[in-house]
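Hey forum,

I'm writing up a methods section and want to include a predicted complex as supplementary material. The small molecule is zinc ion. I've pasted the protein sequence and the SMILES. Can someone with a working setup run it? I'll credit the forum in the acknowledgements.
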Amino acid sequence: MTARHLTLAGIATVGLAGVALLWPLRPHRVAFTPNRNRNVLLVTIDTLRADALGAYGGQAATPNLDRLAAEGVRFTDAHAHSVVTLPSHTSILTGLYPFSHGVRDNSGYRLAPGATTLATVLKHVGYATGAFVGAFPLDARWGLNQGFDDYDDHYGNTNRIGDLLMPERRAEVVVAAATAWIRQQPDTWAAWVHVYDPHAPYRPPAPFDQQYAGNPYAGEVAYTDRALGPLLDLARSGPRGTLIVVTADHGEALGSHGEQTHGLFAYEPTLHVPFIVDVTDRAHALGASPSDLPVRHVDILPTVLDALGVAAPNGLPGRSILRALDEGDSTPPPSYFESLSPFLNRGWAPLTGVVVGHEKYIDLPIPELYDLATDPGEEHNLLPARDDRRRVLEGRLRDTGWPGTNATGARVQENAEVRSRLQALGYVSGSTVPKARYTDDDDPKRLVELDRMIQEGVNLFQTGRAREALALSEQLIRRRPSMSSSRLHAAFLRWALGDPAGAIETLREALRAGADAPDVRIQLGIYLAEGGSPQEAVRLLDPLQREAFPDLDGLNGLGIALSHLGRQAEALAVFDRILQLDPNNAGAHQNKGTVYLTQGKLAEARESLARALQRDPDLPVALNGMGVVELKSGNARAGIEAWKRAVQVDSRQYDTLFNLGVTLLDMGEREAARQYFEQFVRTAPPAFYRKDIENVRATLRRLAQESKK
Ligand SMILES: [Zn+2]
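Reply by user p_vandermeer:
Happy to help. Structure tokens for the complex are below, copy them as they are.
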């Protein structure tokens, strides 16, 4: 009997030990007892390299974020899943990899309505939810506003096509809006604050411009830290605790591997991000800091929900970092990443890959494998020698659920306003037809010099040096004739420089050379519609009428061409179709107004033009049309004022300059008339206005003679 008891006891002991090993049922430490009473502050700092912060050994003085890192946990091994703003933030807010949430670039994608995000979950459990974003790539139109009670994307409005304005706002302005909102919340709140300042161009305000004259990027980082101070202080104060998460959407290459900014490669300078977590009401330390626990953007949503005791949605790839810290989980999870902008916009090979622990695999025509522990600069590609490891990591890449590079989903055609705003921020979009196979010549490593030239072209254009930008895009066309984005850019620059015939010829040549992308045909059609060949424009653009989701700028071009051909009823039908698809399309309202004007229907013209101007008060063509309506209605003064504004917002409104001259002369205001006539003669392109220029010159001579008498 005794022996038997002993045996049973022995078995029981062994059994329990076995269970304990396999099933760690340790209760949670008090540090992060789930607490639904906590506030949530998520701060995303755009374009912030992990090594830029003081706490990470960087050159910028960042006392506010350093303090957060000292009080909470600073993670040294954190990765993003995309190296561009919108897809990366979409991963942060949905807890999904880009191939699952579907947003693959800054343009052409929307987060689907009805998505589950951090904001929709927190709103559902009773949180007040507010978002405060610093720049256009996170505009509400892309769908990240889902679940937010307040989505503040008022970074300054610029609807003027081709303007050199920056659709962004300073961190202190974003922070002021966020802190004002937080102070108004009577109950638990969850705020997402996005600041854009470290993004190029690097122009820190005083005194950081002087203090960091030799390193303006670090100056922007130091400025951003100072701006975030009041927000972090507010989050620490108050009766409730706050879960604070600070990270970056991606880093900045700053010359690494030949890349200047971000969005080309996915080396560590752009993929590795800072990551700091703090729980201000914790009972004791969250865990050792710094922590080398591998963390990912997809972990943010499960972590936040875990800290609040809210159930996470099923099927997420991420895990709660707080739990992993507590349980000492050291198994590195795979972290998927991609850089698809060059593939989507330029037709270069798609870049995807995976980080697992210290190993990083980049899937390209010339594949790469790095050991980040011994080679943090990613200078020694272990392939093809370590093909055994490549096969293992390829397996881990597939384990993430990655469906392969061909599944990038359908892109939406953005309108000219969106393209122009993104271009102002340095994002040049384009369309491509995917190839069946990509070779070494399509590998971005072989094309990094072209990327540098493209970036330089954007900089030249932004600083008003359009002729130099044009010369550069001509070089790019010679270097890679198949890349239609350079051809489109060259055509755009020629058009902007007052050479419409050159713009049209550039795109015709693109089609002859086989650089055939939908964008090229549509843009050529638009230029032809406005540039005196409406018949040909209709031939190119008419097929859009049979598409379910046509390019709306292309349809506007078709309507303009039909109107030029005198087919006004068909033109109006095209504009109405646009307004069915996009009721706020200012261009369609404007074009309808113009058609009504040519038909002499003043009341209808006024209504359509007013709608266009309601949407965008600075639309020059609508202002010009409204001037005509006012004049024909006997309101000469109102008409003149509308025209003056038209040429103020766009000095290339040559018809308006001409109209102003003629009308002011008619009203006896010779001096004012003379000024507009002179501007017309000086700037109007002779290709379109030869006859008018001759007539105006004659009038100016007559005015000069008369004033001598
Ligand atoms: Zn970004």
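Some notes you might quote in the supplement: The longest helix spans residues 686-708. Residues 1-30, 157-165 have pLDDT under 50 and may be disordered.
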